[in-house]
Amino acid sequence: MWVGASILVGANPITMFGVLWGLFLLGVGGVLIAVVWWPTR
To answer: How distant is the alpha carbon of residue 19 from its chain centre?
Structure first.
């Protein structure tokens, strides 16, 4: 799986940027949700 992903990313930098951007947005969204949700538990 990782080998295929690295080949795909190596062949297409735009895909790599999209994946990194998606992970970044997921991380930021997760932190925001945790910060907002945690005190209201």
So the answer is: 6
